[in-house]
Amino acid sequence: MSLILDEIEKNVKSGATTGELEDMAINLIKARRGTPSFKNYKGRPEDPAFPTALCTSINEEVVHAPAKPSRRLISGDIIGIDAGMGYKGYFTDMARTIAVGKIGKDADRLMKITKKSLEMGIKQAKAGNYIDDISRAVQNFVEKNGYSIVRALVGHGVGKFVHEPPAVPNFSGPNLKRIRLEEGMTIAIEPMVCQGDYHVDTLDDGWTVVTKDGKLAAHFEHTVAVTKRGGRILTK
Fold first, then answer.
1. d(CA 163, CA 185)
2. What is the CATH number of domain 2-233?
3. How far apart are CA 61 and CA 219, in angstroms?
């Protein structure tokens, strides 16, 4: 999955459309005998099917923005690209936020802190630890650096299905169920970090989640296997 996102990232430039990135993703996944797991995905049978293989969330969009054919990138944007792939009965999930051309210092710092917070969480994905250890590591690092962590959305288990238990929050709290990590578990850890307040809204398309205050957001994600020594990144 990482190699696929590497190829897509090379084409993230001013003037490119999210539809072009979508076509590229589908072709790259199929060339590797995989299937794009987000396209036509339904969380529940009664839900509408997600329309694209990629989520392409720009600037204040946090996650889940469909890759529309007509949407064009401009220099200074940041775009979160989230992709899932099925292969031989198993699934992986991965995301990264990418600069479009030259971006401002504030956007660059937000991206770096979000990426580092993912690394902090992965270190805690150790057999015998709890999911809360991941959550606290991410939240503490993000908030120490002056940002906020989205609470309305969380990471998740992933493996035989696109989304599986357990939930993997990026924040800690006394009301969250304590779940011990066991060797061999596979989870998607995905900090969603806001430049301003952590509250979010969903746009009228029913998919795109945006920051309520209109400030920037960034998103990084890996599928991780729990081992005795810490998280092993499967999407690397």
1. 13
2. 3.90.230.10
3. 10
